[in-house]
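Task 17 of the worksheet. Students: predict the tertiary structure of the chain below and write it out as structure tokens. Keep your answer in the requested format; marks are given for formatting as well as content.
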Amino acid sequence: MRRFAGDRLLVATHNMGKLEEMADLLAPFGVTLSSNADHGLPEPEETETTFVGNARIKAHAAAQATGLPALADDSGITIDGLGGAPGVYTADWAETPQGRDFGMAMERAWAELEAAKAPYPRLAQFRCTLVLAWPDGHDVVFEGVMPGQIVWPMRGDQGHGYDPIFQPEGHTQTFGEMDRWEKNKISHRADAFAKLIAGCFG
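Model answer:
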């Protein structure tokens, strides 16, 4: 396992919310974070069929373009009753000509579970894969998982994506009903980050 020895890290994203969340998690280590937007980098095309494959594309593209170590994540939801779908296509299910509509994506997920007569509880997992890549081509991979179940109807207006239909294991609220910071402490991203920090920063 390679340790992170520098003081500058590029987070391969244009999502400022994600950058803020990662900056908060890495604050104790004195690392200055920047994003793809700060370096004028485009989003590379995600052509892989796995979370780790797509995270690798993003991390290595950013590291090669800037000469900085780069951290990328790819995340989504896998639903057992749908054979693991939508998986890497989590965001694609929400795409419309007018932008992303996650209400539509959640309705599709439930309709497909109903059509499949999936048994209860309708188990699902939020998954996050982090890849930390160096300019020399080396990388390390950390995977985080939050198990839970799909519920209907949608509950809560916090969070984003599929949060209103995902009830994490051991909790009675959906992610959509939870306080953002409370959710961030137990999420799939928190799980992956704890492993990253223990492996490369701790």
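Marker's comment: The beta strands are 8-11, 32-35, 70-79, 95-96, 99-100, 122-133, 139-150, 166-168. DSSP finds five helices and eight strands in the chain.
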